[in-house]
Amino acid sequence: MQWFGKGIGGLIGAFVAGPVGSLVGVLLGHQWDENAATQRGGRRSARTISQLFFEVTFEAMGQIAKVDGRVSEDEVRVARRIMQGMQLSAEQMRSAIEHFTRGKGGDYPLSARLDALAGQIRDRTDLARAFVQIQLQAAVGAGAVGPDKRQLLWRVASALGVTRAELAQIEALVRGFEQRGTAQSTTVQSLEDAYRVLGVSAQASNDEVKTAYRRLMNRHHPDKLVARGLPESMAGVAEQKTHEVRTAYERIKTQRGFK
After folding, report:
1. CB 167 within 8 A of CB 151
2. Buried b / exposed e across 107-124, counting CB within 10 Å, b at 16+?
3. pLDDT tens, 48-70?
């Protein structure tokens, strides 16, 4: 079925800009699906990757939600919000729910499924970061992230080659996005998050801050990532990252008073 690219595109778009972003994501995902249809024999075709990405996204989400013993109403609400953001058909919604339910099972083979996904995206680090970002979006959106859930998130990130430093940066990006949405951030927290997003300490020099900013903007620039092979349906994640990096840099600039 050629709908997985549309689904992932809708998912990413919904995180970036709500229903409008979701629609754009679906359209971009359609292009991915169309391209994938021409790649019948390749082991690592876009269709194979996008289907596995979709399945493991909701399976891992279910596993993470259940890690503390039960799935809360907030966790169910967030999972359904994500599914609705993808604008799934009734059949596709059932599939997403089935994978989420499978992930909640006590015998779910998380390591094997993550290994399978890692094998498909092993040289596509931005897809790995996008996957982790979605898991963090679900976890943070449901409330406090306890130690068991945080440990499992690290296990997921590690299996896909995402380092602890990258995980902390992604979480800072996600929390910045959530805080802007709820307007509940404080000045101190915002400044701490800003340094975390740029991956530098508060003791870093102005030149070090500027260098970190330029490096991250270059790494996450949507056009450059697409040119390197990032599926266009994933461009929304890069756009969100560059926005958060720019916001973090502006916060630090204002606090330090440099140009």
Report:
1. no
2. ebebeebbeebbebbeeb
3. 777 888 889 899 999 999 998 88
Structure tokens at 162: 């995402």
SS (H, E, C) the chain: CCCHHHHHHHHHHHHHHHHHHHHHHHHHHHHHHHHHCCCCCCCCCHHHHHHHHHHHHHHHHHHHHHCCCCCCHHHHHHHHHHHHHCCCCHHHHHHHHHHHHHHHCCCCCHHHHHHHHHHHCCCCHHHHHHHHHHHHHHHHHCCCCCHHHHHHHHHHHHHCCCCHHHHHHHHHHHHHHHHHHHCCCCHHHHHHHHHHHHCCCCCCCHHHHHHHHHHHHHHHCHHHHHHCCCCHHHHHHHHHHHHHHHHHHHHHHHHHCCC
Instruction: Measure CA 112 to chain center.
Output: 21
Q: Which residues touch 68 (CB under 8 Å, ≥6 apart)?
A: 146, 148, 149
Centre a 10 Å sphere on the Cβ of residue 197 and count the other Cβ atoms it contains.
Answer: 28
The C-alpha atoms of residue 40 and residue 107 are separated, in whole angstroms, by 32
Range in 55-59, 84-88, 245-249, 254-258 with the lowest mean pLDDT: 84-88
Query: Structural domain tally of the chain?
Result: 1
Nearest-angstrom CA–CA distance, 185 and 139: 18
CA 259 to chain centre: 31
pLDDT of res. 189: 47
> Domain residues for 53?
4-256
